Amino acid sequence: MIDDAKTGTHSVKRMAVRGGLAKLFGQGGIFVLRLVFMVIVARLLKPEDFGLVAMVTVITAFLDLFANAGLSAATVQSSTINYEQISTLFWINICVGLALSALCVVIAPAIVAFYHEPRLFWVTITLGAGFLFSSAGVQHLALLQRQLSYVRLAAIECSSHFISLGFGVCVAAAGYGYWALVAAAVSLPAMMTLGLWTATAWVPGRPRRRVAVGSLLHFGGTVTANGVVAYMTYNFDKFVLGRVWGAVPLGYYGVASQLVNIPTSNLNTALGGVLFSTLSRLQDDADRLRNYFLKGYGLNVAITLPITIFSAVFADDIILVVLGSKWVDAIIIFRLLTPSVLFFGLVNPIGWLLWSSGRHVRSLKIAIVIAVLVAAGCLIGLPYGPKGVAIGFSGAMTCWLIPHIVWCLHGTTVTPLSILGVASRPLISAVVAVTLAYVAHVYVRLPSPFFRLISDGFVMIAVYAIVLLFVMRQKSLYFDLIKTIGK
């Protein structure tokens, strides 16, 4: 039997808080690394380079969903699991990774024909090699998550990003254009898997036919199907935009979308993974599960909301500082996409609640409904170019917010009113803080966009902390987290 973290009240709480903090700092480091990478390569490469790689990654990133096959989540969520089961799942992941790498070789000519772009042939084949690297580390990652070993995991993720992104910068500086983005993308899973193997020191055994993995495969299959639908939904905008409008408009749209989603995606990776692992350990204790979820949800939205609202208001300076003046056409796209990012920040944590409590089939049904709504919104906006697609995407997400929350929470111990109560305090605090930051921005006109951004951010953070902790009376919640870390 695989050893797990103890599920005593104080043990789980302490490990969850420390793991969440480690992941949060780790994802903060990754955010800085990705931001620095984007700042550098945006000046070394052309928008067309980003567009070319985006044409392929829309497809290869979709295929990457199958490299995991949902078996990492199945390993984490299962109440009990043994060595033979994990070994068998490991070899299933390897077979899937090999198949996906071979599939990229097969579909490369079709991608070239679809986009009428011969340069995509070797880009597709090269990116396909990453599938085997990522699939080889799936179960090792799951073991660390199951044991709540997020300090080691954060160290592996940060070092892997540092090496891979640094490699990409070197390739860009050498003048190889879009191959810099390819190099960074392929080297990342290789470095991650190497680190995971080293940290766990677990060597898989032979696969066995009579090992009971049926329930794990069912859970993993449902999670994979959910991921497939979600990926198709949230990349449909880039797919149709690249097909109809070409590489340059897609380059602006893709970079704006990537930049605006970095804080939320990193935060969801940091807190979401810890929340899923923790809730899975508490799935048989309804009261503790509800309590832990609401605290995790509150922390997630407390960080997401101010960042997203700040990004919408100060999009001009953010784009100028991060990407440079040649990317000014991305400003309006960046701003129009912020409502969709706000949606993700509010609903992503609820997905972890559904999965950890075994409601993965409901999550899949909800994902299908979202797919229809997003596709309709993007197609309506497509004739108007990148701005129209951004409006259609964000509009669909905004309209679906309330029905999504109600459907997700139906039958659980968490109610929509409890979610509203948790989210309202950081939302009000964020609106007040960004409003005062904008007032300071108007009356204190600094000449440099960099210093304006620093000044506006400082005002926003200071006001937000004061309003949230003292006016909204959330001081005890966060002080309790600090005390837990120190125990």
H and E order: HHHHHHHHHHHHHHHHHH
Coarse structural class: mainly alpha
What percent strand? under 5%
Average predicted confidence as pLDDT:
84
Count of individual helical segments: 18
What distance separates the N and C termini?
29 Å
Q: Which segments are poorly predicted (pLDDT under 50) over 5 or more consecutive residues?
A: 5-9
How many individual β-strands? 0
**What radius of gyration results from the CA coordinates?**
22 Å
How many domains make up the 3D coordinates? 1
Could you characterize the architecture of this molecule?
The structure is a single chain. With 487 residues, the chain is mainly alpha-helical. The protein has one domain (9-486). Helix content is 84%, strand content 0%. The chain has helices at 9-44, 47-68, 71-77, 83-115, 120-135, 138-146, 150-173, 179-200, 214-245, 247-281, 286-313, 315-322, 330-356, 360-381, 385-409, 416-443, 449-471, 475-486. Residues 5-9 have low confidence and may be disordered.
Secondary structure layout:
Elements: H1 9-44, H2 47-68, H3 71-77, H4 83-115, H5 120-135, H6 138-146, H7 150-173, H8 179-200, H9 214-245, H10 247-281, H11 286-313, H12 315-322, H13 330-356, H14 360-381, H15 385-409, H16 416-443, H17 449-471, H18 475-486
Helix pairs in contact: 1-7, 1-10, 2-4, 2-5, 2-9, 2-10, 3-6, 3-9, 4-5, 5-8, 6-8, 7-8, 9-10, 9-14, 10-11, 10-13, 10-15, 11-13, 11-16, 12-13, 12-17, 13-15, 14-15, 16-17
